[in-house]
């Protein structure tokens, strides 16, 4: 499971760079291998079972649901419209599609993945797109494989459209890191793993959420909600792109 987590984090860090390079290139059809028989459909209303938007406040974009249906993969992802910066909109859409593509390329014929998403923040300072689901590895006709939780988030600065992870979100000086680590511990509890910048992050309208899979066999991710009003003093301002 750790190799999936590491690969997922690496993929997200590379998405912004790849998106910028490919912004002017024609994107291939998602999952265009004829042997895989992908089915794509667009729906202006997201599925209540797999995809939902939690923030209803006015925002700078609208979201259209896209669906991929295969024998071993059932996934939904959003594509956004309406950002003033067309290049940023294209890059973000490539990032969102790229999450599904990255999982698809790593799956074997004995794996099964169900993945949906939430738009947990689409107003204020941050945009957050959170993918959740279940991955079953090693399924066979006569045996059921191990089922593992999936949680991946893509975040953007609402003003600059810069991609955000814990790496570029938080101030890196020792005093700030120490203070934020103590704040994290207050909300995480004594049994949680100490904060580290390889943990995932996403935003709601009121909180920053730090998530982590405590153990490979854990049934769910640990998610620590910290009020934004308490966490923001430890955020970089401005937030710089990850590759700088």
Describe this structure in words.
With 244 residues, this protein is an alpha+beta fold. The chain has a single domain, classed as Fervidobacterium nodosum Rt17-B1 like (Heat Shock Protein 90), CATH 3.30.565.40. The chain contains 5 helices and 11 strands, in the order αββββαββββααβββα. α1 (2-22) runs antiparallel to α2 (86-106). The two termini are 30 Å apart. Keywords: Signal. Residues 47-59 have a biased composition (Polar residues). It comes from Paenibacillus chibensis.
Number of helical stretches of at least 4 residues: 5
Going by CATH, the architecture would be 2-Layer Sandwich
Low-confidence stretches: 9-50, 53-58
- Biggest beta-sheet profile: 8 strands, mixed
Output the structural class. alpha+beta
User: What value does the Rg take, in angstroms?
Assistant: 18 Å
Name the overall outline. Answer: globular
Proportion of residues in helical segments: 25-40%
The first-level CATH class name: Alpha Beta
Q: What number of structural domains do the residues give?
A: 1
Keywords: Signal
Protein name: DUF3298 domain-containing protein
Organism: Paenibacillus chibensis
Supply the key terms.
eight-stranded mixed β-sheet, alpha+beta, three-stranded antiparallel β-sheet, 5 helices, Heat Shock Protein 90, 244 residues, 11 strands
């Amino acid at each position: 499971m750790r190799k999936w987590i590491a690969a997922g984090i690496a993929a997200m860090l590379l998405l912004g760079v790849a998106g910028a390079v490919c912004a002017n290139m024609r994107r291939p059809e998602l999952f265009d291998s004829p042997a895989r028989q992908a089915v794509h459909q667009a729906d202006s209303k997201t599925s209540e079972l797999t995809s939902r938007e939690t923030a209803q406040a006015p925002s700078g974009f609208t979201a259209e649901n896209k669906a991929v249906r295969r024998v071993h993969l059932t996934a939904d992802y959003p594509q956004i419209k309406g950002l003033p910066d067309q290049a940023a909109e294209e890059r973000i859409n490539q990032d969102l599609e790229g999450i599904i593509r990255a999982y698809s390329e790593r799956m074997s014929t004995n794996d099964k993945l169900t993945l949906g998403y939430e738009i947990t923040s689409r107003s204020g300072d941050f945009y957050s797109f959170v993918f959740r689901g279940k991955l079953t590895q090693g399924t066979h006709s006569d045996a059921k494989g191990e089922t593992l939780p999936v949680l991946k988030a893509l975040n953007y600065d609402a003003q600059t459209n810069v991609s955000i992870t814990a790496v570029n979100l938080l101030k890196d000086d020792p005093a700030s890191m120490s203070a934020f680590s103590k704040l994290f511990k207050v909300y995480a509890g004594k049994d949680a793993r100490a904060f580290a910048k390889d943990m995932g992050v996403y935003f709601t309208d009121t909180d920053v959420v730090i998530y982590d899979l405590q153990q490979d066999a854990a049934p769910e991710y640990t998610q620590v909600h910290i009020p934004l009003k308490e966490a923001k003093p430890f955020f970089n301002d401005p937030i710089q792109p990850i590759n700088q």
